[in-house]
């Protein structure tokens, strides 16, 4: 009896689970007989995926948490390598989580199993020498950004641009009025959004700075309102603790759980911590001020290793300073307030950057899941 097409997938966190679910669905439209196994979350399980280990055990963030959980994570990695080597799937797909998945892929590739890494690490910005290692660990890399494939090709690897899933799911045209109606907000004047980050350490570093900026903006625009989407229950609690400080007692701020895309679309200008959220703001077609603050020692180390002129994804992808970046010693309320006000007071600048963001959206918008499915089936020799 012929064994059904077997595709192994491994994800480390919720974003990977979503990509994995979309990939499974796209493969099933072409190969309904395919079976899926590995490590996945609830969305993938809903598509018929069989998870051999608890995906939540891999979803750890922060140095201390990783060190504490390292023995368990290494045990899972050893187990999944053993299980998949014995099963011999037609292809292995590691989705993001490069620290975990690339080690698994390397072992499986040596055992003769084709391997794919889906979502390139930021090799164009940080430690570009990793490209030379990755091309030996996997047969193919699926990239979300258009500048990435050539880096792998130059190193003798195989890679392709499949588009960014956010650009596929988010609307090309923004609707500020509808977003405000959904949130139940109708400010008499300006509405400024604050995105301090999805991790506690980012919130601790950036939320006080952004909230102090809000106080300065309130002096300039007395009718202004502020809105802040929280990424997790933990960050919501920490932001609540910061807002309890006397200096923020009279700040007209609304907390919203998640809904970052709706919040950004509703806002006039967004203050955002550097990271993936900056791309989401751009896809909402909103002007932003990007900021970030880390320890002086870490910043000195990172500055030597970083390989790009900009830190914000919109600026990197557009290859210009489309939006201001106020980092480290520049991440102070006075400078942030001035940059936000410069957007709000100059609608012609907002119109120009919105046009840039529409072009960026079109660049990144592809049928990501279908393109990824085609690549997976090719590596599995199932097309």
UniProtKB/TrEMBL annotation:
It catalyses: a lipid X + a UDP-2-N,3-O-bis[(3R)-3-hydroxyacyl]-alpha-D-glucosamine = a lipid A disaccharide + UDP + H(+). Keywords: Glycosyltransferase, Lipid A biosynthesis, Lipid biosynthesis, Lipid metabolism, Transferase. One of its GO terms (biological process) is lipid A biosynthetic process. One of its GO terms (molecular function) is lipid-A-disaccharide synthase activity. It comes from the Bacteria. SUPFAM superfamilies: UDP-Glycosyltransferase/glycogen phosphorylase. GO terms for cellular component: membrane. Pathway: Bacterial outer membrane biogenesis; LPS lipid A biosynthesis. InterPro entries: Glyco_trans_19 (IPR003835). Its EC number is 2.4.1.182. Belongs to the LpxB family. HAMAP family: LpxB. Condensation of UDP-2,3-diacylglucosamine and 2,3-diacylglucosamine-1-phosphate to form lipid A disaccharide, a precursor of lipid A, a phosphorylated glycolipid that anchors the lipopolysaccharide to the outer membrane of the cell. This is Lipid-A-disaccharide synthase. It comes from Neisseria animalis. The lineage of its organism: Bacteria, Pseudomonadati, Pseudomonadota, Betaproteobacteria, Neisseriales.
């Amino acid at each position: 009896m012929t064994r059904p097409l077997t595709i192994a997938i491994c994800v480390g966190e919720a974003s990977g689970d979503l990509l994995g679910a979309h990939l499974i669905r796209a493969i099933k439209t072409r190969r309904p007989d395919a079976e899926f196994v590995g490590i996945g979350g609830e969305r993938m399980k809903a598509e018929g995926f069989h998870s051999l280990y608890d995906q939540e055990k891999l979803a750890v963030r922060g140095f201390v948490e990783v060190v504490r959980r390292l023995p368990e994570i290494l045990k899972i990695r050893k187990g999944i390598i053993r299980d998949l080597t014995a099963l011999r799937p037609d292809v292995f797909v590691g989705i993001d989580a490069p620290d975990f998945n690339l080690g698994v892929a390397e072992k499986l590739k040596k055992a003769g199993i084709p391997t794919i890494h889906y979502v390139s690490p930021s090799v164009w910005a940080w430690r570009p020498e990793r490209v030379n290692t990755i091309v030996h660990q996997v047969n193919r890399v699926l990239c979300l950004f258009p500048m990435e494939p050539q880096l792998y090709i130059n190193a003798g690897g195989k890679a392709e641009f499949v588009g960014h899933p956010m650009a596929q799911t988010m609307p090309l045209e923004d609707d500020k009025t509808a977003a405000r109606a959904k949130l139940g907000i109708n400010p008499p004047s300006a509405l400024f959004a604050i995105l301090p980050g999805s991790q506690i350490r980012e919130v601790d570093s950036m939320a006080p700075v952004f909230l102090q900026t809000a106080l300065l903006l309130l002096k300039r625009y007395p009718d202004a309102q502020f809105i802040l989407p929280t990424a997790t229950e933990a960050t919501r609690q920490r932001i609540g603790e910061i807002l309890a400080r006397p200096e923020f007692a009279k700040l007209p701020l609304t907390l919203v759980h998640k809904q970052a895309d709706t919040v950004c679309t509703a806002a006039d200008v967004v203050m955002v911590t550097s990271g993936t959220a900056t791309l989401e703001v751009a896809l909402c077609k909103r002007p932003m001020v990007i900021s970030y603050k880390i320890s002086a020692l870490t910043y000195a180390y990172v500055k030597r290793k970083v390989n790009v002129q900009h830190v914000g994804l919109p600026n990197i992808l557009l290859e210009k300073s489309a939006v201001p970046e106020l980092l480290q010693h520049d991440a102070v309320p006075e400078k942030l307030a001035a940059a936000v006000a410069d957007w709000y007071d100059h609608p012609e600048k907002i119109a120009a950057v919105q046009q840039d963001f529409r072009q960026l959206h079109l660049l990144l918008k592809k049928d990501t899941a279908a393109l990824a499915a085609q690549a997976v089936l090719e590596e599995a020799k199932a097309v």
